[in-house]
Amino acid sequence: NFSSDEVIRKRLLIDGDGAGDDRRINLLVKSFIKWCNSGSQEEGYSQYQRMLSTLSQCEFSMGKTLLVYDMNLREMENYEKIYKDIENSIAAAHEKISECKKQILQAKRIRKNRQEYDALAKVIQHHPDRHETLKQLEALGKELQNLSHIKENVEDKLELRRKQFHVLLSTIHELQQTLENDEKLSEAEESQETQMEAEAKQ
């Protein structure tokens, strides 16, 4: 009571790749039955040849199936090898990408450093070199030493003028004192003369 779909499905399962092996086996069984029930020698020989032909076809089909099976196995092995090669290639590509990223970062750092070096070089170029700077410092030192001598001379002159001015002030003070004394003496003499004149008139 199998349905037609179930019958077809079972035939496909038995038939394998659909080469008709189940049909050959059925024919072989029928030929064997006919051979067993053959009445004459000619009929038996004919059935025997059919059985040999059917067996040859089955062996050929089986050989082909084994070859296809072996081919599929080799193909699977080949696919596995290709898959492993692809995996190795992908891993190598990831490593190369990682290495390239490191090289890019290093190149960026080198470029940044070069830009900074160029900027510093431009700043340094605007300043005189060390030899010229030392010459300028030496010249400034000599000028500072000369100014120091000038300062000492000026201070010495100022000290001398201060002393001279002090002496002058002392002389003026003494002169003023002398003049005051002389004036007092003159006034006393005039007063004495006036008194003497008054006494003479009496």
List the helices and strands and how they pair.
Layout: H1 4-15, H2 21-36, H3 41-125, H4 130-201
Helix pairs in contact: 2-3
Family: Belongs to the THOC7 family.
Keywords: Coiled coil, Nucleus
Main location: nucleus
Short descriptors:
4 helices; rod-shaped; coiled coil; THOC7/Mft1; 202 residues; THOC7 protein; mainly alpha; single chain
Structure report:
This protein has helices at 4-15, 21-36, 41-125, 130-201. With 202 residues, it is mainly α. The protein has a domain at 4-126. The longest helix is centred in the middle third of the chain and has 85 residues, at 41-125. The model has no long low-confidence stretch (mean pLDDT 80). One of its GO terms (biological process) is mRNA export from nucleus.
> What share of the residues does DSSP label as strand, in percent?
under 5%
Which stretches of 5+ consecutive residues score pLDDT under 50? Answer: none
Query: How many helix segments?
Result: 4
**Helix residue percentage:** over 70%
Oligomeric nature of the chains: single chain
Q: Radius of gyration, rounded?
A: 70 Å
Outline the biggest β-sheet. Answer: none
Query: How would you describe the shape?
Result: rod-shaped
How does the helix and strand content classify structurally? mainly alpha
Give the averaged pLDDT, no decimals: 80
* Number of extended strands: 0
Q: State the end-to-end CA separation.
A: 203 Å
Order of helices and strands: HHHH
